[in-house]
Specification:
With 239 residues, the protein is of the alpha/beta class. 41% of the residues lie in helices and 15% in strands. It holds the Pfam family DeoC.
Length: 239
Amino acid sequence: MSHAAGSEPTPLAGTWRAQPASTPTRAEAAAVIDHTLLRPEATADQVAELVAQAARLGTYCVCVSPSQLPVAVPGGLRVATVCGFPSGAHTTAVKAAEAREAVDRGAHEVDMVLDLAQVKEHDYNAVESEVRAVKEAVGDSLLKVIIESAALSDEEVVAVCRASERAGADYVKTSTGFHPAGGASTHAVALMRATVGERLGVKASGGIRTAQDAVAMLRAGASRLGVSATVSVLEGLED
């Protein structure tokens, strides 16, 4: 399955919430997966294999480290990268410059990590300002904001989702997958979806290793999944 450049797949989130017993087909799940390789030791050959797998599996996107850009992909396959990754403890200027360079080097989408110190200090004006600066840097390219939901209280999750929306983000995303607090949870996904409604996408990422994990996240309200174990996840679903 392929998608036209610049288009979004039909979000699955509404379908699964409306019909909680429904299960996506293998192709439907693949169509909302960012097939991900963000290990710092990943080589160019491994990225090429990631792209080949993504094309075979019909995933929506590949997500790679910014140092791997540009990445040659077949028509219809999008390229995502990360910004301020994985700690988020970078200055706004550095994040904005990194994001701008990534877009210039062929990234269609950028997943930025929030400054968690700002969140824990409840300085949501600073959070909003930083997200806005990165969104301005990427222009029409899609921006996902990684909030590290496992490290936050419910009140903080709601507040950073609202700040991200005010700043013009396109998606909020649960996790980097590198934080010791953990990755995605269905509770966090449902809370994020309830906060942003259908106005923003919700990406679940971190610890999604089985078909059951993926289905649970979609039913909770995710419209995109960040997955490195894509082959095993899709093997657990039917055509």
